[in-house]
Structure formats: C-alpha cells, structure tokens
Amino acid sequence: xxxxxxxxxxxxxxxxxxxxxxxxxxFEVAVARDGAEALRALEGAPPDLVLLDVMMPEFDxxxxxxxxxxxxxxxDTKIIMLTARGRDAERERGLSLGAxxxxxxxxxxxxxxxxxxxxxxx
Amino acid sequence: MPWxxxxxxxxxxxxxxxxxxxxDRGGRRLIQSPWAYTLSLAVYCSGxxxxxxxxxxxxxxxxxxxxxxxxxxxxxxxxxxxxxxxKIARTCGITSIADFIAARYGKDAGLAGLVTVVAVxxxxxxLSLQLKALSLAIETLDDGQGFRPLLDDDAxxxxxxxxxxxxxxxxxxxxxxxxxxxxxxxxxxxSVVKLLAFLAVAAYAVWGIGGGVGAVFARAAAEGREGxxxxxxxxxxxxxxxLLTLLSSMAFLVLPRQFQVAVIENVDExxxxxxxxxxxxxxxxxxxxxxxVALVGLxxxxxxxxxxxxxxxxKAGNLAVATIAYLGGLSAATAMIIVATIALATMLSxxxxxxxxxxxxxxxxQEMPDLRGLxxxxxxxxxxxxxxxxxxxxxxxxxxxxxxxxGLISFAAVAQFVPAILAALYWRDANRRGAFYGILFGTxxxxxxxxxxxxxQSGWIGAGVVADGPxxxxxxxxxxxxxxxxxxxxxxxxxWSLAFNGLLLTLCSLLGGQDALERLQAVLxxxxxxxxxxxxxxxxxxxxxxLHDLLVRFIGAGRAEGVMRLDARERGRRLxxxxxxxxxxxxxxxxxxxxxxxxxxxHVVVASVVKGEVIGAAGLMEILDETSQVIGYSQRLxxxxxxxxxxxxxxxxxxxxxxxLDRLKDDFLATVSHELRTPLTSIRSFSEILIDAPDLxxxxxxxxxxxxxxxxxxxxxxxxxxxxxxxxxxGRMDWRIEALDLNAVASDALAAVEGFLAERGIEAKADLPxxxxxxxADRDRLLQVxxxxxxxxxxFAPEGQGLIRLAVARTAEGFEVRxxxxxxxxxxxxxxxxxxxxxxxxxxxKDRPKGTGLGLTICRQIVGRFGGRVWIEDARQGGAALCFxxxxx
Lengths: 122, 889
Fold this sequence. Notes:
The complex is a heterodimer of chains A (122) and B (889). With 122 residues, chain A is of the alpha/beta class. Chain A has one domain (4-121): Rossmann fold. Chain A is 44% helix and 20% strand. Chain A is built from five helices and five strands; from the N terminus they run E-H-E-H-E-H-E-H-E-H. Chain A has helices at 12-24, 35-43, 61-70, 88-96, 109-121; strands spanning 4-8, 28-32, 49-53, 78-83, 101-104. Chain A has a five-stranded parallel sheet, with helices on both faces. The longest helix of chain A has 13 residues, at 12-24. With 889 residues, chain B is mainly alpha-helical. Chain B has helices at 2-25, 28-31, 34-41, 47-60, 66-92, 97-104, 109-142, 154-170, 181-209, 213-222, 238-254, 256-264, 271-287, 290-300, 308-315, 319-359, 372-396, 403-414, 417-426, 432-457, 464-468, 489-511, 516-526, 544-571, 583-597, 599-609, 617-692, 698-730, 742-759, 779-796, 855-865, and strands at residues 737-741, 762-767, 774-778, 802-810, 814-821, 870-874, 880-887. The longest helix of chain B is centred in the C-terminal third of the chain and has 76 residues, at 617-692.
C-alpha cells in the first residue's frame, strides 16, 4: 500500500497541480479545500504527509497544524506547510507548531516532490 | 500684691524678649509657619478688644461686633487685595504704609510726610487707649492697697516703662524691610497668651460665677435685659452697622501696625490662604464669650465699665484669675504698642524727620560719614515722643471716653488712606495731587467731626460749637454736618471724610496730570503682576564710588560691601570706583537705601549724587516702550511656545498616523505579495510539470496550459489594479474630467463585457433615461467602474441563467446607477467590508471568485473623486445591487 498524502489549499489550481505531482510520485492523494475539510479528512484514515497551505478562510494552516499535533495518533504524520508569505517570523511559527518543513510559494515542483519522497521513504 | 503685679509685668516682658531673641536667631521653622503670620495679624485685638468689648457689650449689647465683622470680610479679600499689596511691597522694597502710598505717587516726600502725620494723629488716641487700659487695670488691681511706687501717676509710669521696653525691643535693627522675625514671633506669642487668658477668665466668669451660659441668659431675660441681646439694643441703625463694619474692614489693612504685620513682615505669600480662614476663626473664638461675660458683670453688680473682666474675679476674691486677666490685658496692650510704635517710628524717621534733616543745609548731614546712629536715634526719640503724646492725649482728652469709642476714632483717621491705596492698586491715572489733597481734606473733616467734639467734651472748647455749630451755623455742626443726623458719630465722620477724600482724589486726578516718575510707579503698582523689576528710571552717569559711599553712610561698610558683592556676582565683575554707574546699579543702591530710610528719602539722597536726575517725559516713554517691548516679547514667546507645543502635539499625532499607515502599508504589501505569489505558484508548477512530463496526454496538457494563461491574466489584472490604486491614493492619477453622457458610457461598458457575459450564459438588460444623463467625469475611469461592477455581477450571477440589469435613474442630486444581479446577494455584515482592500465576500460562494480583491476599493475611490458615493443593497430580483451616484452637471 502506497503512502498517503493530503493536499490542503483553497486555490483550486494549486490543488490541481499538487494532486498531479503527488500522484505521479506514486502516492495516494486526498484533497481538502479548507481547514475544516482537512480536519474531516484526517479523522478517517490519517495520511502520512499533509501539504498544508497557511492562508485559508475560516481556520488557517497554523490552526490545522496545531490541532494535528495535539492528537497522539497523528504524531507520525509529516507536515509540509506551504505559504505565500515568506517572512522568517512566520516560518518560525510554523515550525514551532510542529511542521516538519516550511516551503515558500512559488516553489520548485522538483524540490517539493524530492522532499516529500525523502520524508516518507527515508 | 503691688509687688506681685510689678514682678509679673517685668517677668512677662522679659519672657517676650526671650521669645523675640529666639525668633531673631533661630526659630526659623516657627516663623515659616503660616500660624505665626496668622497669629501676628491678631495684634488687631489690642487692649481695646480685651477689655473694651466686654465693656461695650455691657452697655450696648451686640454693638461690639462690627469691629470684628469687618476684618472677617476683609479676610475674604486676602488672596486678591492683600496679595497684590504684598507683591508691590516686595517688588518696591516698601518699609511702611507711608512709604507704600508715597512710592506709588512719585516717591513724594511731602505725601509720605502727610501720611505719617495722619498715621501718628490716628495712632495717638489708640496708643492712649492701651495706656488707659493698662493703668486702669493696675489701679483696679491695686485698689485700696495705697501702693504708689515712684510716681503718683500709674499711667505715666506705665508710659515710661512701655517706652523703654519698645525702644529696646523695637530698634535693634535699622533695616526696616529686614523682617523683624523676633518681633513677629513675640507678637504671635502674645496673641496666644491673650486668647487663652481671655477664654480662661471668661469661662471662669460664665461658669464659675454665672452658673453657665444658659443660666446667664435666663437671668438676663428675667432682669429685663433682652435689649442687650437684640439688634435694637445696640442703638445702632442698619446704616451704622454697615458703615462701622466697612470702617473696621478698611482699618484692618491700613492701620500702621496691621500694615506692618500683614504686609511688611510677611515672609511667604502662601500664608495668606491660611490666614484667610484661621484669622476669622481667631476673632470668633475671642468674641464668643464677650456677651455672656458682660451679662455676668451686670448681674454681679460690678458696673458697666471697661474692666468687668478684671473686676469679676476680684469681686469674687479669686486673685489667681484676676492675675491671669491682668496678664492677658498686658499682652494685648503690649503687642499693639510694640508693633504700632515700631511701624510709626520707622515712618517718623524715614518719611518725616530724616528727609527734613537731609535737606537742611545747615546740618550738613549729606557730608556725615555714618548716619546709622542718627537714624536709630530718631527712631528711639520717635517712640518716646509717640508714647508721651499718647499719655498727654489720655490725660487731656481721652479720660472721659470709653475704650471702644477711642478706638473707632483712630480707625476713622487711618481710613483716610484707603482711597489713595485703592487707587494706587487699581487706577493708573490717580495722581499725587489727588492723593495728597484727598488725605489732607479727609483728615481735616475727621478732625472737625470727631476731635472737635472730643475737645468740647473735655472742656477745651465751648460746648456750643458742637451743639449749635460754629458761629451758630447749624449746617456746620461737627456731628451733624450739612444736616446729616441720626448716625453714630463715627459713621457720620466716616461718610463725610471719605466723601471729601474720594471726591478730591478723583477730581484732581481727572483734571491734573502725572509727572514721569509718578507715571512709572503707577504702572509698576497697577501692573505689578505683569511688570517686575524691568523699570529703571535712572539715567545717571555718576561714579559708582560715590554711590557706594552713600551706602556706607546709611547702612554701614559691611552691608554696603554685601551689596557690591551681589552686584559683582550678577554683573560678572566688580564696578570700579570711578566707573560711571549704570541704571541697574543706581537702582540697586536706591532700593537698598530705601529699605533703611524709606523710598522717598532714598530717592532724595540718590538724586543728590546722581547728576543725571530722574528721566524726563521722553525718557520715560522710552522706558515704558522698553518694558512694553519686553512684555511684548514675553507674550510672543508665550505664543511661540504655545505654537511649538501645538506643533509638537501635531507632529506626534502625525507620527502616530504615519506609523499606522506604515503598518497598513506593510500589511498591504504582505497581502499583495501573497496575492501575486498565488497565481505565480500555479504558473510555475504547471510550467514545470509541462517540462518534466513530456508524456502528458494532449487534453491534460491543454488544461494545464489554460490554467497558466488564466493565472497570467489574473496576475496582470492584479498588477494593473495595484498600480491604479496606488496612483489614485497618492494623488498621481491623471484625471481628465469632462462633460459626458452617462448613457453612452454605460452602453460602452455593456459592449465591453458582452463577450464575457455570453460565455457564462448571462443576460444583460439596460434601463437608461431617454433624455440622456449629462455628468462630469473621466470617461476611462467611469468605464472602468462600470465594467468592474458588471463583471462582478456576472461572477455572482448563476451561470446559464444569470440576469444582470444596469439602470440609470435621475434623482434629486443627479443620477443613480444600479448594477443588479440575481446571484446569492451579499449579507448585510459584508456590505461595507467588501470595499476594503483584498476583502472579498468569498465565503458566500464556494467557488472563490477570481477577482483581485481591489476592484471595489478602486470603484469607491473613483466615484468619490467624481463627487458621488458607492454602496450595496438588495436587488429587486433577490441578488446584490451595487449602486453609485454621480452629481448632474
């Protein structure tokens, strides 16, 4: 069984590209369009990796990350935060909340896929 | 018993010396206390108060009250009237009330002399009153003992003893503005002694003899003495009450001894506020039991004389209480005598004797090396003369009068200073001639209406003058002048003397002019709060050495050196003896001399040395100009500093606004960056996918390319919008406002979005006024607004069955444009927020609209520029209506 990736972003085009990239890298992909949907998706079968956008309506990526890290059974899930805000303070915040990596948009697709693979397989 | 009196008196006076010596050397803390000042004001309560109030109350009930009501009212004016007098006295180095008045009216020696003479005339009955009180007290205590030490005349003995005491006590220093700390402390001490003694004896009388206040009053009622408890029992009309209260309120400030303690001896202006309540409280305390004691005296049958306070314990055989009563009276009388003689002797020497001696060419005083001894001698002789004159008055005239009436005669004399003083404080145009003749004639009327009847009563002149008028002219009767009858004699005298006084002051001042120095001093007095120490009337060029010699002669080498040192410190160097003295130095010398010999004398002395004389009218104008310039500068400076304060406040506010703008700008940039990065992310991702995955199937490749194209367009729109907004907000937008037909622009806008609407299957309807809609606007920007609103509506309208209506309607102010759709509408709470930057009503649609988030912000800015407004409401068919107005041309 392949590793499972959850893509969370409110921008349909970005979701589309990430879904394509992750599938092509051989992962099973689930999609969520905002924070609430992401948490619902997590309830079912916890993914191995979450690609998490920060700026989303209602509750944002930070909050999702925080909740994710509160549950012990989700402790092994890797988190890569994606953000269009590249400030250091925000990177710090993301990492302090328990994200494993913090990637600034626009990102290199190759790097992102490499990192995802390294995290899940290495 | 007689020896006891003598021992007690001497012992008490010795104690006073100790208190004074302590005050002179140390005792600084006590002197700095407002209590010392307040209690020293109570020198007002002399032997007259101590014995006379009870005596008067026994005869006329409440008639003793006006004398204490007056000062109580004056106390209300302390912060204004007295404060201003203090300020002037300090600024001008004033030494006495004569000095105070004369300095205002051009430092005129004649006026100073006149004030001194009047003050002395007024004080002599008052001093004789103290002598009378004291000798009566001694005689009463001594009654039947047959004790006659040294002389067969108690009063003369008392006079000589007090003169010796006052001389030793009062002339230890020469400088009259150097406050007599020791004296003030001694007087304050005496105020405590007399208050306690009075209260003790009164309590003894009322409770010990009379059986309590209630019993005393009950008995008084039973004996038919209700008259003493009512207004009618005083024998005074309401007008009398008013006039006597007014008289006391004036006398309280202008009696030489009161002026001495209230103005000259004040060490801290802040004490006024304290005295303003504490002094009336003192008066209340010392008056509280007067009436009951008087009633007890009447009931005990000691008679209605002035010495009830002493006679009551004597009659009851209580020598201890009698002794306390005697000591209280002694303290009240000595306090008054000490302060009054010091004040009057200073005036006599400074304002009367020394100026005359200085002018006398035969005496050649101007050439004497040291005049200090002479000044002291004059003062000591003055004290002795004052007390001997008072003794004579007592023997020749005052013997037949009750204490209280003698006191009021004195009050009426010094009341003659009041018009000149009030004018000095508040009327710049009052002049010397007016002050002089006012006081002169006022005093003449006083002599005629009060002293002539006193002389007649004592048998020195025929009683017919009082009864029928001089030469039988009834209109000129001294106690019913010009037919004015029915008043208390003192009220009557007050009315006429002040009427003449005030009238002459006013007339002379209005008709005559002022000389330069007078004008200068007038300004200095009236505007004392505004101008301080900037007026320098001297334009002399005499050598500094001569002025220094002058100082040495009057105040001694040691203190002259002190003046030179102070001057050197402020100047930065010491003046050489043959260097010409400048105005500042001359003034310094004059001021210092004035403290020793009064400003009128000092002026004469300095004028004899400074050849330049006092400046003339032209020079005065110059000086006044200078001072008004200085005032102008300081006012401008104040304005400047206010303006600076305002500017700095505005800067702070502007800075705060800038900071806020900066934060907004930061937020804006972060948001713009986010908005730019989002489409860029898609573009980059799909571009990289297209490069990395050559094996994509054509449909998918097509889909990804379309995304790249759409996101590129979105990026372009965003950049356009950001640029537009920044141009509008910074005012750099190039507006081409012209007359337009709104209908035409609306049609163009519809044409521009036609393709987009067709693509989404949306129908558009236009509802335009047939007569056209003339407005003034920039065509391209107006088109931008309309296109933006239409595409907005198209995005919200349901795809396939969308309906958009563009309506233009005439209103009162101009035209209203509505763009309506049949979409979900916009909830009330977002209708304002959507006009903020990057605020989209995105949660109303799951499909996030691909706007830039700046469109409506820009619309609002543009419409605002045209003079209209934009808002959102419900559309008729259920969706949102975006509306804006434009003024008609």
